[in-house]
Amino acid sequence: MSATITLSESEHRDFIKQARADFVREQMLAMRESGQTFDFIQSAQVCGLLNVAPRTLAALPLPRYPLPGGKTTFYKLSEVIAYLESKRER
After folding, report:
1. Is 12 exposed, middle or buried (0-12, 13-18, 19+ CB in 10 A)?
2. Domain positions in the chain
3. Which tens digit of pLDDT belongs to each residue from 12-66?
4. Number of CB atoms found within 10 A of residue 80's CB
5. What is the CA radius of gyration of the chain?
6. 32, containing H or E segment
7. Secondary structure class of 88 (helix, strand, coil)
8. Residues β-bridged to residue 40
C-alpha cells in the first residue's frame, strides 16, 4: 500500500527551505565533530545557513571576499556565525 502526500506550492517551498537548512546544519556539525576546519564558505552555503535568497544575501551587511579574476565570492564563517548570533540576541 502506498500513500501520496500533496503539498501546496507554498508548503512545498517551505519544506524545501527547511530541508536545505537542516542539511547544512547537519553537514557543518559533522565537519566540526570530525575535526575538519574551514574558514571561508561560498555564497550558496551562506544562503542555506541563513535561509535567504542570493539577492537578499547581497543586501546583508556581511563582508565579501571575491576571488581575483573570478565570479566566486566567499564569506568568513566566523563573520556569518557572528551575524547569526547578533540576530538571535534580539
Report:
1. exposed
2. 9-88
3. 888 887 887 777 677 667 767 777 666 888 999 899 888 899 999 999 999 998 8
4. 19
5. 16
6. helix 9-33
7. helix
8. 76
